[in-house]
Amino acid sequence: MATTSCDSYLDVNTNPNGPDQVVAPQFYLPAIQSELALGIQFDARYLGRYIQNWNLRDEDNTWDRHGYVSGSDAAGQLWRSVYWTMGENLTDMISKAEEEERWDFVGVGYVLRAFGWQLLTDYHGEIIVKQAFEPGRTTFDYDSQEYVYEEVRRLTMLAIENLERTDGKVGSSTLAQGDLIYNGDREKWLRFAYGLLAVNESRLTNKSSFNPDKVIEYVDKALQSNADDASVRFEGAVSTDTNFFGPRRGNLNPYRQSKFIVSLLDGTNPALNDPALQGEDPVFTSEHLKDPRLPVMLAPANDGKYRGVTPGVGVTEYTVANERPRNPWATASDVVPATTPNKYLFGNNARFPLMTYAQLQFIKAEAAYIKGDQSTALDAYTEGVNAHMDFVRTFVTNDASTEIDEVAVFEERRAEYVASEELMPKTAAELTLQKIMLQKYIAQWGWGFIETWSDLRRYDYIANPDGTIDDNPANNVFAGFELPSPLFGLNQGKPAYRFRPRYNSEYMWNVASLEKIGGMEQDYHTVEMWFSK
Q1: What InterPro entries does the database record attribute to this sequence (predicted)?
Q2: What CA–CA distance (Å, rounded) separates 336 from 139?
């Protein structure tokens, strides 16, 4: 499901603040779910550059330097998805489901509303919640992020309450007919809700009220294995039902993997390196053992080596053409055929993750580490790494174009990787916050953009574990991560902490409310978030 198909689904409402008719709940759900994925993916083309999942092929790009384009809706699709596509359609779905006593639909509706608010506030900061869907309004006041966090918790608890109900028409519900994420599995939706509570609480590590025990409790009630991963499915046959990141859509052709992600997977990152593994790789025999996930997730250059780009520099730093990183599908040209074979999450019919078991294990590991429960932290860290390796392993295939036995190489590398006490600590005392957060970054690469950005902002991008900042990137929580130099001119030397609200909605029609929160300032996007203070 993508823009065209979703718009046709949502023609039932012609006014976002006043629906004209209400239809059966199952007819709303596919459009709402697929457009939520679209909102994240669309804006990831910009956010992905801030967090250095990828950067642009060309040099001196505004977004690569934590900037923005004024007078443009670029990076504003999630805003549209939450307020318009979900909007009153989600309200109508919940109301109709309550009327019909379909409590599973009600629960899914509430948790999707909560998830939308969580994503949107973590992306934009202050957003409109209380007045968002009041009929007849033409201006809307912004709510504080602290209030939005409370509302996310309230809605999620409502979701849990309804998902736990077994009366009414739950047993004969039609949830599976419209559910692109869990195919109507109520228990998995219940676990997703607890996962959202874990995400919400885990954001508050810089607050005196932060409760690591709550995070651990919520994670333990959330996704139980990779089989519980939440992801949106796509058919991939035509453009309108194709993954936004697929080659048929052509949205990532000029993008290149960053040097940072390459360093995390090729053995050169200072925190994910084991000197004993130098010269131990089965393919690049003179080099450090490669993470088995490297060739599955990333793309080699024409010479077969894995390299990345520096923000704002692009491929220009490589004067030898064969050394330049390729696009996500590893094609020699950026004119990518629509039928190019799938590559990791970038296939036409690849599912797009929204929450994963591995992700939540790293959230638990960080919370336990902060609490001082290193034993629990180590168990969760180990579980998270293995879960993500299992996830990536599902994308490994041998076919006619495969020069080596990719399955065998993956397993050989994995065995050596997990045996390393430097990469996979065997005692709690050996585990570091760096390792937890870097492995979480790997596990979320290519999909968990907002969660990764929230992590980076909580640690001020380049802060050390003790909160100090020095000139040695190796000391950072996100070891090896460096901010672009120079940053965008309007930033006044500060990195981005939020995206400006959607231009055609807010800067055209809601200026008075924007002025109240400082949204008209040119460097508003650098204002720190409430959750990260």
Answers
A1: SusD-like_2, TPR-like_helical_dom_sf
A2: 44
